[in-house]
Amino acid sequence: MKIAVKGQVNQVEELKNLISGHSLIPFKISEIDTYDIIFDLDFDDSPEQIQAYHQIKDKLIIVGSVKIQLEELYAELGSNPLCTIIGMNTLPTFINRDVLECCAITQQDEKIATTFFDQLNLKSRFVKSRVGLVTPRIICMIINEAYYTVQEGTASKEDIDLGMKLGTAYPKGPFEWSQEIGLDHVYETLDALYQDTKDERYKIASLLKTEYLKKFIS
After folding, report:
1. In sequence order, what are the residues at sequence separation of 6 or more whose Cβ sits closer than 8 angstroms to the Cβ of residue 67?
2. Which CATH architecture is the domain 135-214 placed in?
3. pLDDT digits over 44-63, tens only?
């Protein structure tokens, strides 16, 4: 099976660890017809890539779809793609897990993807196709609430990280986890969630926004 991968270095490394028994080929648009599966791990940072995919037949393409909903892309195209496109939670730290968090537009797409995943010895769980999916929605909201707590002067980042690990048995504290995910991913996921739902739970804390904006200041 010929598997191509596109994404940030840390995302690609996670996928390599997950699919350790198979070779992963760096994605090249000129060779797209030769691949059996394409993992586009940073797709939701460059969703215009859908233009290169939607007319390709009989391919399975797994795309990162935390910050954008697949239906929105299809609506902009005005049609469904000819290939099978599956959304996946591909934020850093969420790829190399026991169960892949995925979404599909149709049951047929889900069935096709599950067959391929079985061949790769991968387990998957399909959730509704929505901005934020499930796990990123929850974790980013927790991180945002932690920023609000620091912003209000209630506790320090270190105290919150320690408290979450000791009190709730989380593997990482929210600030530690946000650094591993990447604060840009956290910010952009929360922003996409707020724009999609207008739910106050996803309104970004000022402190988080300030730290995110600092990366653009030389």
Report:
1. 44, 45, 131, 188, 189, 192
2. Orthogonal Bundle (1.10)
3. 999 999 988 888 888 999 99
